[in-house]
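Example for tutorial group B:
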């Protein structure tokens, strides 16, 4: 602010109003810096508000962190359950798409497979080549 600017400002100020008492704060090569008690108070209010904002933000982040930490165990359990559900649904869709059947388990000590197929080998056979199913009794 130059001395001319200060003079213009002083002319518009109300005499006796302490908010407009200019105090020289700094002298620069290109001019001088002035402050008023009113501006000084505003600056203090702004700095306090910034500090309070930062403090409130840190408090809210700490609360959010605690709530997330408290829920991690439940979220992990839920993610595990969803993963198993995904596996079961994928197997069910694959079995339905490829017309697979569920094996029957009998506790008689005999393993009997009728028209057995290997899903990986069958999937990667050259085009036009048919998989030959196999029977097995052990």
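The residue assignment follows.
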């Amino acid at each position: 602010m130059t001395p001319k600017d200060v003079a213009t400002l002083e002319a518009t100020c109300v005499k006796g109003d302490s908010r407009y008492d200019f105090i020289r704060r700094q002298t620069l090569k290109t001019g001088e810096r002035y402050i008023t008690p009113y501006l000084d108070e505003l600056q203090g209010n702004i700095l306090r508000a910034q500090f309070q904002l930062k403090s409130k933000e840190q408090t809210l982040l700490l609360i959010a962190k605690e709530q997330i930490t408290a829920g991690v165990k439940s979220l992990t359990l839920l993610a595990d359950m969803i993963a198993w559900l995904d596996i079961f649904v994928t197997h069910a869709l694959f079995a339905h798409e490829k017309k697979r059947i569920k094996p029957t388990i009998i506790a008689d000590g005999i393993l009997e497979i009728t028209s057995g197929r290997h899903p990986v080998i069958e999937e990667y056979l050259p085009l036009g080549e048919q998989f030959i199913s196999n029977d097995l009794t052990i």
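The first strand starts at residue 23 and ends at 27. Compare this with the pattern of hydrophobic and polar residues in the output above.
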